[in-house]
Design goal:
This protein is of the alpha+beta class. It contains seven helices and nine strands, in the order ββαβαβββαβααβαβα. β1 and β2 form a beta hairpin. InterPro entries: Ribosomal_bL9/RNase_H1_N, RNase_H, RNase_H1_euk, RNase_H1_N, RNase_H1_N_sf, RNaseH-like_sf, RNaseH_domain, RNaseH_sf.
Length: 257
């Protein structure tokens, strides 16, 4: 794997970092963080010593799994840093509550490499489907980090992100209870939170705006409807054409969730 250099202009400790986990700590939950990865030290030195923030800082030259539309930075709540692997997850329900399914799109080195769908629930909710998608994304991210790859998960459900990243720790300390009543979807929250705790120092979990033209988010959305249509309760890898890989334009024309 080629070495990368991470420039952080705005963060806890601005500077140039040579490994993703250390760089991530400088920008994790840091409001207004500005950062970008570079393939060579010379480029990183020039960018950092220039004293100005790159116009596309925080996203690399183009967000992974994004259309040219999203590369302007308008459509992502937290644009992905240029990590090796970017995982988009989504959940869908038609109606809500009703037939629910989850979907994931995985990119590595700017290329779509995997699509996943499943966890069909005939009596599910959108939140349950979103949490399931996030849980399986955490598993995929963990697999990537074990291979020495940097990873980021982009989820369009702030509810799911806050359950796992912000609220679960307090709920756990309180015996998995909250003052305002029942914690809904507690089983999947517990599973996802336990996994998140294992990898949170090496995997960045961020929000992406839904249905804003971001290719990875749109593909994850299409997979939620594949799950609903195929009624598969398992977690299944979507098939590629044996010769041509994924036909992304055709996938994007599929039914949206």
């Amino acid at each position: 794997m080629a070495k990368k250099f991470y420039v952080i202009w705005v963060g806890r400790e601005p500077g140039i970092y040579t490994d993703w986990p250390t760089a991530q700590k400088q920008i994790m939950k840091f409001s207004g963080a500005k950062y970008k990865s570079f393939p060579t030290k010379a480029e990183a030195d020039a960018a950092f010593s220039g004293g100005s923030v790159s116009s596309d800082a925080g996203a690399g030259s183009k967000p992974r799994g994004s259309s040219s539309k999203t590369s302007r930075g308008n459509n992502l709540s937290a644009p992905p840093i240029k990590t090796d692997v970017v995982i988009y997850c989504d959940g869908g329900c038609d109606p809500n509550p009703g037939k629910a399914g989850s979907g994931v799109a995985v990119y590595q080195d700017d290329q779509l490499i995997q699509l996943w769908y499943g966890v069909y629930n005939p009596n599910g909710t959108n939140n349950t489907a979103e949490l399931s998608a996030l849980f399986y994304s955490l598993q995929l991210a963990q697999h990537a980090t074990k291979q020495g790859l940097s990873a980021q998960i982009l989820c369009d459900s702030m509810y799911s992100i806050q359950c796992i990243r912000d609220w679960a720790a307090g709920w756990e300390k309180n015996g998995w209870k909250k003052k305002t009543g029942e914690i809904k979807n507690l089983d999947i929250i517990k599973q996802a939170y336990a996994l998140y705790n294992e990898i949170k120092e090496t995997v960045l979990l961020s929000h992406v705006k839904a249905h804003a033209g971001t290719e990875g988010n749109e593909l994850a959305d299409r997979m939620t409807m594949v799950a609903v249509e195929r009624k598969d309760p398992a977690w299944v890898q979507y098939e590629q054409d044996s010769n041509n890989g994924f036909n992304i334009p055709a996938l994007l024309k599929m039914r949206a969730g």
